[in-house]
Specification:
Blueprint (H helix, E strand, L loop, with lengths): L2 E6 L1 H19 L4 H4 L8 E7 L2 E12 L2 E9 L8 H14 L6 E7 L3 H6 L3 E9 L2 E9 L1
Parallel strand pairs: 4-5
Antiparallel strand pairs: 1-2, 2-3, 3-4, 5-7, 6-7
Length: 144
């Protein structure tokens, strides 16, 4: 099996991105479409993970300020979980952000059940647990 991760423009990858995020966030987790598709995608950098030429995972990077980038919407289709695809998407996104000398930190709002993944990648929890779209999250920061 071969994993390839590509940086794509939103309009280039829109069909795959929408399919993956709809399956994971709306169908599996019950997130409202208006919350999931927040109108910010066009201004973000997107990643798509391909497993044997099939798009199976995605995430996006959004600039929060000149010094802060946020990795959001990390999603992997259910049959492809446990293969390290989410971790590889995160590593790809982190490298992409590190390539911009202005950024001093990366922020994620991590679903609580995947907090360990982010900790292994150097993120630290800041603040208390909170609910986003009815799902427990924690804010995490990685300083660059």
């Amino acid at each position: 099996m071969l994993l390839i991760i590509k940086k794509v423009l939103y309009l280039e990858g829109i069909d795959e991105i929408k399919f993956i995020r709809t399956a994971v966030f709306q169908e599996e987790q019950g997130v409202e479409k208006s919350l999931e598709f927040d109108g910010l995608d066009a201004e973000c950098t997107h990643m798509l993970a391909y497993w044997d030429d099939k798009a199976v995972g995605t995430s996006r990077i959004r600039e929060i300020s000149q010094e802060t980038a946020k990795i959001e919407r990390l999603a992997v289709l259910k049959p492809y979980r446990g293969l390290g695809i989410g971790k590889e998407l995160m590593k790809f996104a982190i490298k992409e952000i590190e390539g911009n000398q202005n950024y001093r930190q990366i922020v994620v709002n991590a679903q609580e059940y995947v907090k360990l993944l982010y900790e292994k990648l150097g993120f630290e929890t800041v603040g208390d647990r909170f609910d986003e779209a009815g799902i427990p999250h924690v804010k995490m920061i990685k300083r660059l």
